[in-house]
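User: For a benchmark we're assembling, each entry needs the component sequences followed by a predicted structure for the full assembly. Here are entry 17's components. Please fill in the structure.
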Amino acid sequence: MTDTSRVRLWLVTLALALSGCAGPFPQSTLRPRSDFAQATDSLFTDIFWWAAAVFVLVEVLLVVALVRFRHREGRPAPKPAHGHTLLEIAWTLAPAVILVFVAVPTVRTIFTSSGEAPADALKVEVIGHQWWWEFRYLDLALTTANELHLPVGKPVRIGITSADVIHSFWAPLLGGKRDAIPGQTNYIAFRADSVGDYSGQCAEFCGVSHANMRLRVIVDSDTAFGAWAQAQLGPPATPPKASPAEQGRAIYARSACIGCHLIQGVSAGVIGPGLTHVGSRTTIAGGILPNDSAHLAAWIADAPALKPGSLMMRMKPPLSDADIAALVAYLQSLK
Amino acid sequence: MKSWLTTTDHKRIGLLYFWTAFVFFLLGGIEALVIRLQLAQPSGHVVSAETYNQLFTMHGTTMVFLALMPLSASFFNYIVPLQIGARDVAFPRLNAFSYWVFLLGGLFLNASWFVGPLFKAGMLNVAPDGGWFGYANLTERQFSPGPNIDFWLLGLQILGISSLAAGFNFIVTILNLRAPGLKLMRLPVFTWMTLVTQFLIITAFPVITVGLVFLMFDRFFGAHFYVHGAGATPLLWQHLFWLFGHPEVYILILPAMGIVSEVLPTFARKPLFGYTVVVYSGILIGFMGWGVWSHHMFAVGLGPIADSVFAATTMLIAVPTGVKIFNWIATLWGGDIRGTTALHFAVGFIAMFIIGGLSGVSHASPPADLQQTDTYYVVAHIHYVLFGGTIMGLFAGIYYWWPKMTGRLLSEPLGKWHFWLQFIGMNVAFFPMHFIGLLGMPRRIYTYSPDLGVSDLNLVSTVGAFLIAVSLLVFIANLWRTRSRGETASNDPWGGATLEWSIPSPPPVYNFSVIPTITSRLPRWRTELHAPMQDPPATPPGPIHVPGGSWWPMVAAFGLPLMALAPLTHTLWLAFVGAGVLIVGIYGWAFEPFEV
Amino acid sequence: MTHAAHAPTAHYTSMGLDSRKMAFWAFIGSECLLFGSLISTYLVYKGRSVVGPYPHDILNIPFTSVSTFDLLMSSLMMVLALAAVQRGDMKWGKIWLFSTALLGLVFLGGQVIEFTEFVHKGLTMSTNLFGCTFFVLTGTHGAHVAVGVLWLLTLWVRALQGRLGPANAMTVEITGLYWHFVDVVWIIIFTVVYLIQ
Amino acid sequence: MADTEVREHAHPTVDVYLRVAAALVILTVLEVGVFYVPAFHGVLVPVLLVLSAAKFALVIMFYMHLKADNKFFTFLFGAPLLLAVGVMVALLFLFYGALTLRGAAGAG
Ligand code: HEA
Ligand code: HEA
Ligand code: CUA
Ligand SMILES: [Cu+2]
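Assistant: Structure for entry 17:
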């Protein structure tokens, strides 16, 4: 058993014991699932043990001093001691030496995890918006929102930037966060080592709904990823004639929706997330709501009620329930 | 009443600082309790998202600028002149000015809770909501159109003036008003740390002032200092803020370290171990604090070289800090330790601060910090250093110097209750935050998903916060009780070594009936070379002239919030009125006869 | 603070230095960080404006050279005023004090003309980054000059009233420290902003 | 106290003040001159920095009396000044160095 897994086990067990529930901890930083996350995790483990040693040493000394030298009647007055040069040198040097052991791997890891990736890495651009994520696959000419699909085992390089204020892109199991800063692109690079559905969220305070700016990263097998990309590249589904979905498309096309959303061939808005394949996503609204009829309907009726401050304002005039139902049907058809 | 409003007596100003800051501390604490209530459960509904953001912003701002700094200032004011054998500070009226500016600045900031209706918004709607570090460009008008951020940036500018004025005052006081024979290397460590802190203040505050001025020009006059579309970068704000912000955290901790360095020797009946080293490491900490600011920016993409440099400088600070810790332990070692409440808090400081220091070192490693930054792991760090460190240290100071300041001893049994409840409470409240953060909960979120698996830990933390509240109620009860029933204090209830214990508790207005001449670092103790000094006589040999009060510092102070109201309400004439009041105040002050 | 507090009753001080002067040097140290931050910002944002006018389109070196000369001369007047007051020559003390203030006013006038001209040429605070950093940096300096002028005029009036004499030399000296510091800052600004484009 | 008092007031004479003023004017003329001479363009920045540093030093040493005054004042002024210069250099490094320091990955 490596050190890393040992401390992880220890910490998780302790947390489990404290929390009493058997959560899988979907955002734990102690369960690395990529080379990048692995590197930071083992670095943290190192530091943790050094810190634990210093902690124990200091607390033990403190307690011993307190117990041994507490006041007792009749004890002679303490000998004044003004200092001790050797001791001073020792406890200046000892921490310095420990710090060398921390600093060297730190610097090494900084350079190995600085976002450089092989040329054939899959390149994705992440753009933070108040309060949702846009993902652009640069080589695939493909854009999606809030749910990032990646192939397992392949190097990926993620360029992170923002369209408005500063956000921070973070999917803990896959690695550390990087800030999304307007006018600047920051990079992280990693290779996910197992298939799975990883959650993450915006980590820099970005306004009212910062708490509601979540995301997920879905790491697929190579084939599943290919199939997904293929589907996303296709045109939006055309609803069958006279279905509620077709009615929904008509409503969509004459509502305010088109001003903000993109559906290929239908509308070209850029303020909100693209909806061309919105039906294929498992969540909506920055990953806070499941993508089902009830939530979609509630969202379309009054987004800010579900997500304070949402820039998708309440529709004015309000849409009728029937219209909303049709819209929902249409959006769900956009697989 | 009038005598308090016009007072220029450092002791009274110290008490004013104390009570004002203590009330702000309770306010910040109540804000924290509401935060904890909201987070006690996932998807909490105690407050709205907007209110939550105002709460944590005001909590951080209040604790840092309105509670901890001025609580330290209350000891600078009360204790430092006594420790150096002075009759007052160098500029008594400037001192009063600092206090009034602080009070008005604090009221200005907190008025934002109530004045929503004046801005056509609800109550609890226009308080600052951009975080205590107010990151641009979120704080630009485009993304924060309301007056919220305006209150914050104007309020902080006002408070900065107070701190700067006090900074100059105390530097001169400590350097120039020492009693004869009190060489620099004989100064009590608390006074030394005060001096270092003042140097940090006068150098760090101008930087945030500039950052705030830029923000003000952006918000009010259409400048683009932090707007990337114009070629600028919001990162400039982060640099300016943390250039100030990191020295600021040492401004918060050094006075507490000074207090601990006074309390431990007194109750271990042993001189401070390695006095010189402790002093120099304090100076070094202050100096090194200037070279580490980008460790708050490890996620912004400064590049591997800059990250490495700042990681190294940051880690180095652990060395002088560790030196202090070891010297404190060595002070206890071989002593004859009296377990007073003050000693409990001082030892609590060491025990808890180190936890925060060590998590700080884990932040100092940039790759590790990429997983930690902006999570509750950082919140754990800051509360271990600020609560486990500064607050513990300040309480040590309160229990230690309260008899000197009021003439009555706080109750020891209640003090122990207070200590243990607070000690347990803070660990229950803040220790789980390490796990909460490592398990992936970001900071500054008003709601979190039950799926994260941190709900129970959060509930535990909330319980801890309320335990702290109970401990503070015990403390308040202790204060209350002591007012009338506390044991009266002699000159020197603890057997302290420093000058403040040689005069009555509370001291007479003139402090020292005769200015003492100092021959030793521990003037009141017998050491190998020195006999204890003679306490000054109970009555002064001749009349001592004490300056009367002055209204002008307060008048001048009122000019500042008036000026701040001008941009806030878009009323130009208020700016002139404010400037006029300030100028009138200063002229009145400059030309009134006043004998120092 | 200027007058009565400095009655000649020499107070004991542990460093043997005048407390006000010491406080003032600390203040000047603090101002170094203020102007340091402003100048740093000017420098890091140099050349990042995305639209004009750019510095070389608009800065008028001959004009500003004259202003610089003016400010340097005011510093000379200031030391002469101090020397006069110290030797008790209040006649010249008054003259030099007033000249210092006058040259300060001339400098301010020059700045007003400069700013107005820039605004006419299309450079305002909100035009571009050059505008932001230029106006805030030079404006902060100008504000310092304005305070200095007010202060000097106050001393001059006190002198006219006969309430300023050799006993107050320290007050004049401190005023001078402020005034020279403002001059020194301008020396840097003139180089960094105007000459190094 | 008396001796320190004397030291504090040992100010230069009017003569020195005048000569410093002359030096300041000459340096300023040089600065502006250098600015207009094309031959200097390659070394404009270092030359200007040296010249203005010289002016800076003259004013603080003679007009602000730091040269003759108590060394402690030099510390009160010099330490923050050094800090300010250090901060400036660091910031310039961080802003201008960013592209190259960040290496290939950061440069995009
Ligand atoms: C009192 C205030 C205080 C103090 C004293 C400190 C002390 C330290 N801090 Fe902390 N810090 C804050 C207050 C403070 N901090 C605050 C408020 C924030 C958050 C701001 C915000 O974002 O809102 C913060 C954030 C913060 C960050 C940024 C985290 C992030 O946002 O990602 C970092 C990163 O390096 C850091 C590091 C350190 C270090 C290395 C120390 C060191 O000084 C600690 C040194 C002490 C010890 C190490 C213990 C004793 C030493 C020994 C016993 C010797 C042996 C030890 C070793 C060999 C390791 N701090
Ligand atoms: C400076 C010191 C300081 C202190 C002392 C505290 C004290 C506390 N803090 Fe503080 N905290 C900060 C500084 C401090 N904090 C900072 C800088 C931030 C970052 C802000 C930001 O992100 O912008 C922060 C953020 C912060 C958060 C994170 C918010 C978020 O990111 O969303 C939390 C959450 O739990 C928290 C909790 C607490 C608690 C429970 C206490 C407790 O210890 C409080 C104890 C006090 C009390 C419990 C009050 C007692 C009141 C009474 C007894 C009532 C008496 C009433 C009458 C007499 C009328 N704090
Ligand atoms: Cu986006 Cu927080
Ligand atoms: Cu820091």
